């Protein structure tokens, strides 16, 4: 299979207690510490003079031309923008006066975003009537800091620490999926100024949407059609086809496979699939969680070996609820970069942004070969 042997990975046996240590920020937002074995978080009181938090700070508006909801969140104009390293709000703040994480240190921490796109509890009445249709922007937006190390990255984490991040994703996914009004949970990371990142500290975000996002709805529609025509799951068949072809597979274990997709839209794009059908990260078993963390690290480290500087990327965890409407959804990760060479970026200009018609400047097979060589 194009030089990619199927390897057995030793079971790391990480068994973390995923119940986090909880604290509150000065404006009442929730703060959760996830810790490695033997580490005990020591949060201090958040003493910043923060303004009172509004229960719902955004609005959903329906675009009749596309049939899609648009989030209007004007408060995000005031969010922190490229602060100097000594004023980073994601670094530990032992005095309780300087940081979103009032503590002398931490392993992984999650907190409610101070400038959320979605906020507020309860069901949103997403009904489309005549004329302009809108609804409160109910939902939840969280920030997840992968490490207290300001200059690090996810790829720098030790396997046990990466597995702790996966455990945090898992705990937050289970929590948010159980909340009323949350239809989809999306864990993601944007890395690099080229992507638009305004805080360089290694972190990601977790969104709880009150509706299914357009991409998810489109994928589920395709999967439903595939089931009707073929009697099988679309994503499982795609994985089988990629394995049978082999030219785009870059890493494979007994439990997970990473490959460049046949119709890749981005200059660098890798998908990571569990070899067993599950809807979301909550349904993964302990050994699968170990493998997921290892394969995820493997791919990110290959990314950073592609060029002389770290690769800017976006990471998207596609998760689905175990419901009739989402029953065909197969958990997987999509990793994407806009860098198409050592000196050039892929800009989403008119064809991509206005028409959603992607044009790729490189072949997926060439990208896969390059990534295989970077093992």
UniProtKB/TrEMBL annotation:
Molecular function via GO: nucleotidyltransferase activity
Record keywords, A-Z: Carbohydrate metabolism, Galactose metabolism, Metal-binding, Nucleotidyltransferase, Transferase, Zinc
InterPro entries membership: GalP_UDPtransf1, GalP_UDPtransf1_His-AS, GalP_Utransf_C, GalP_Utransf_N, HIT-like_sf
Coiled-coil intervals, chain numbering: none
EC number of this enzyme: 2.7.7.12
Domain Galactose-1-phosphate uridyl transferase N-terminal intervals: 57-212
Biochemical pathway: Carbohydrate metabolism; galactose metabolism
Lineage: Bacteria, Bacillati, Actinomycetota, Actinomycetes, Mycobacteriales
CDD domains, A to Z: GalT
Source taxon at top rank: Bacteria
Name of the top EC class for this enzyme: transferase
Record flagged with keyword Transferase: yes
Cofactor: Zn(2+)
Family as reported in the entry's similarity comment: Belongs to the galactose-1-phosphate uridylyltransferase type 1 family.
Domain Galactose-1-phosphate uridyl transferase C-terminal, first and last residues per copy: 227-374
Reaction catalyzed: alpha-D-galactose 1-phosphate + UDP-alpha-D-glucose = alpha-D-glucose 1-phosphate + UDP-alpha-D-galactose
Name of the protein described by the UniProt record: Galactose-1-phosphate uridylyltransferase
